[in-house]
Design goal:
The strands form three sheets. This protein has an eight-stranded antiparallel β-sheet, with no helix packed on it. It is globular. The protein is an alpha+beta fold. It has four helices and 13 strands.
């Protein structure tokens, strides 16, 4: 009987692919990658698993505070993202459906159609990091897209896989090559099902 249970568990792992969950503190800290684990600790969310409703429960007090400003005419918090929106992250296509703002000094969180956390994005991190700092920490960083304002280069996107299903995306402001935005993107498919925190 144990042999049959082990065989079923192995077959399920192979069929679904072995994917390690990544937990992330909602307060961005440079060079602190998500940790392996599918159990969120206080102040953490799990990429690919944490649901939108779970996040709203975990951070209910924070979400009801005055530190989160929702502009007049805004669709609310969380806000829906227009259907058909697709992000190209390295060789992966990611489709966000909802955006949740947890306020200043925290990641803005994005969820897919299954309402699973697929992105944590931070703007203006402390410490004025540059491309040189990032390349020391992440030697596998690869240059992706470049954005222009007129014919003047404005910013560049650099990416690297930090885990099987998690890609770090760094947006650098040009010409100083200063870090403007840091993102962790979950690139594996998510599943509907019983909500997990």
């Amino acid at each position: 009987m144990r042999w049959v249970a082990a065989l079923v568990l192995t077959a399920n792992s192979i069929a679904q692919g072995v994917v390690h969950a990544q937990a992330l503190d909602v307060r961005p800290t440079p060079f602190t990658e998500p940790r392996t684990g599918n159990q969120a600790r206080h102040g953490e969310v799990v990429l690919g698993q944490t649901t939108l409703s779970g996040t709203r429960r975990m951070f209910a007090e924070l979400l009801s505070s005055d530190s989160i400003k929702v502009a007049r005419g805004h669709q609310g918090n969380p806000s829906p993202i227009p259907a058909g929106t697709v992000w190209q992250v390295a060789s992966h296509r990611v489709q966000p459906s909802y955006k949740l703002d947890l306020g200043p000094d925290r990641y803005t969180l994005y969820y897919d159609k299954n309402e699973r956390l697929i992105a944590a994005i931070a703007q203006d991190l402390p410490g004025a990091l540059t491309k040189a700092d990032l390349l020391v920490r992440y030697p596998t960083l690869r240059k992706g897209r470049r954005w222009y304002s007129g014919n003047q280069a404005r910013s560049e996107q650099w990416t690297t896989a930090v885990e099987t299903c998690v890609t770090l995306v760094a947006s650098l402001l040009l010409p100083q090559e200063r870090l403007e935005q840091l993102s962790y993107i979950y690139t594996c498919p998510t599943q509907k099902g019983t909500p997990r925190l």
